[in-house]
Fold this protein.
Amino acid sequence: MSQKDMQPLEKKEAQAFRPEETRGLPYYSPHVDIYETENALTIVADMPGVESQNVNIDLKDNVLTLQGRVTPPDTADLSPVYREYREGHFYRQFILSEIVDQDRITAQMSKGVLTVTLPKVEHARPRKIEVKSA
Amino acid sequence: MAIIRLHQPLGGPFAELDRIRREFDRLFDEFTSGFFPGERSGVFPPVNVYEGKEHYLLTAELPGVDPSDVEITVTEDSLTIRGERKPDDGGESANYHRRERGSGTFRRVITLPDKVNPDKVEATSRRGILYVRLPKAEEVKPRQIQIKSA
């Protein structure tokens, strides 16, 4: 087990084109892990404060869009004392190559982390090539 | 499999202008509000602290951290958060394209703005956000003074 200390990650504002908000919350680009196994590609995105029903995943023309709308804490009667981070929505896009089986994409949200599993289509799976000895 | 981050806006030439305009709006907002996170502590996790009449509320973004892996200790004027964010591993066979999220242990102490009652502190975790409600100590609560007519 690693004893590495967790480093603070800077929140980066999302840059890609998106429609404007009526309510002035910023959009951040979520930090992601993307890994590939034999059968699937998995995208894990940090979206703290986002409820599962406020996640929007869209795949169009091989562009995968992840969007999460944050539910900010109710601070109506409170005044800020320290402020080290801002709440905001999340937005990020990726271009996928065509080997993803678009009908079998699944997603789940847990503890503010979105996990999207993109299964590979059959013919894109790696084949093990036997080396024959002559 | 190749994954390419989109750098070009999708909405054509005016989208870029729109983006620049919004960027200026944002800079202007930050400049004029005079209250935005320039206060980086360099320690994970960043926190926000709010003050109410009777209590303080501390919030921290801890996505993917199990509440059982977080330990909070409170004294009259400080709060310590320790914990670990475990790596979300795809298993032995996973090969990574990107790894931005990070994992590891964290321990942070925050000095509170005023005295609190450590016995009545409550912490909850929702959607990857930690909420700690810290009731103020009796002696620092605002009291209303009745004016007696002579």
Chain A has a mean pLDDT of 85. The first strand of chain A starts at residue 12 and ends at 13. Residues 25-74+82-123 of chain A form a domain with the Immunoglobulin-like fold (CATH 2.60.40.790).
